[in-house]
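Chapter review. Work through the record for GTPase Der before attempting the end-of-chapter questions.
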Amino acid sequence: MSFTVVLVGRPNVGKSTLFNRLAGKKLALVDDTPGVTRDWRAAPGHVGGLSFTVVDTAGLEDVSDDSLEARMRRQTERALDRADVALFIIDARAGVTPLDRHFANLLRKGRTPVVLVANKAEGKAGMPGLYEAFELGLGEPLAISAEHGEGMADLVQALMPYAKEDDADAEAQAAAGSIGSEEDEIPIGDQPEPEEDKAKPIQIAIVGRPNVGKSTLLNSLVGEERVLTGPEAGMTRDAISVDWTWRDRRFKLVDTAGMRRRARVDEKVEKLAVADALRVIRMANVVILVVDAGQILDKQDLTIARMVISEGRSLVIAVNKWDAVENRALALKQVEDKLEAALGYIKGVKVVTISALKGQKLDTLLDAVLATYTVWNRRIPTSQLNRWLEGVLDHHPPPLIEGRRLKIRYMTQVKTRPPTLALFVNKPLDLPESYQRYLIADLRETFDLPGVPLRLLLRKGKNPFADD
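C-alpha cells for GTPase Der:
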C-alpha cells in the first residue's frame, strides 16, 4: 500500500514531532520556537501496518504577500496539492484559534481529503480543546499525543481508507528521500560498489555559508521551487532531500542550512540546523561546497572544505554568482592560490564556476560530481600497488631510524569510499609522517586519484599473502 500523507496546521502545533513519530526517526528539527520548519520534507512513514509517504510542512500563516511567511505558505500549498490525504493538526491544549478556523475553511474547499487531529491531548488539559475542534466542520477530531505516541491506533483507522494496493510501494518509499534512512547508515567502506548496485542514488550534499545560493542551486537542478529562496540569510534549517534523475543516473540532492563560524552561532535552532548539516555531510557520497564569487573561499569556506575531507567525503567546489564577476582571471587565480595554501595535501579538487540563478554550467558541475564520485569509488589491484611500491622503495627508500632501515613489506587496498590502503611495515610507529605524505602524493599522481581523500593505514606484520 502506498499513498501520501501531508501534515498541515499553524506553527508550533507539533507537526514535526508527529512527522518524526511516523517516520520512526528524528529527521525534522523540533523546538518550542514557532516557525522552525520552513520547507516541506518527505520520508517513508510506517504505523500499524500501513506504509506511506509522510510530508512535513511549514506552519500556515494568514499572509499572501512576498514575505518569508507567504513563501512558506505557498510551499505548503504545493505539498498539499500533491497529497492523497491531509492531517490538519491543532493544539488541543491551546484550543481552537482564529487561525485554525481560517485554514479549516480553506481546507474544506480544497480537493484533498482532510483528517482533523487534536495533538497534545494527553491528560485533562487537552479535553476542552478537543471538544472545541468539532466546530471546525471537519468531522470528529482524533485525540493524539505525537510526543508520547498516544492515539496512533485511531490514526491508523482514519488513514486506512486512503491506502491503496500498489506494486511500486518500495519504489515510492525510496522516492520519499529521507536523509538518515537505513541505506544511508551503512558504514563507510562496507557499501557495495556502484557497479554492483547502480540503482542506488548518489547522495549529494549541498553545503556552504548562509546566503551563497545553495537552495537556488537545488531548485535550478530539479527545475522547480522545491525549497525556499530569498535575500534573507539562514532561510534553510532542515536538511531537505529531493530525489532526482539526470542522464539516467539517480541522485538524492540534499540542501542544508548555512554554516557560520561557531563563535557566531548562538541561537538554539541554528545550532540544531548546523548539527543536521554535519550529519548530512557524514552520510553523503559527494559534497558540493557552494561559495560566493564575491567572497571566494574565505576562512569559513576552507573550514567546511577541511571538514568534508576529514570525514572522508569527496568534494566539488561550485563558485556561484560567477555572472557578476568582472575580473574572472584574477578570481580563478585566487581560488587556485587558496586551495594550494589550505588544501595542498589533496590535489585536484574540481572547481566549477556557475550561476545557480541563471542555470549556467550546471551540467558541467554534475559532470564534475560524477567524475569525483568515480574516483572516490576506485579500487586499485593489489598487484599494481605492489609494483608501484617496489619502484618507490628503489628510488626513494624510507629514512634510517637509529641507524637501521625500516622494512616496508606490502600494500593492499582494504576499502573504497574513500580509497583506503594498508601498508605493512616492521615498525609502523617509526615511519615518519613526511614519508607517508610522500607516498600518498605519489599514489595520487600515479593512479590518477585527484580531489578525494586517501587514507593510509600502517600495519605491523609480514605479507599476509606470502607463503610461510
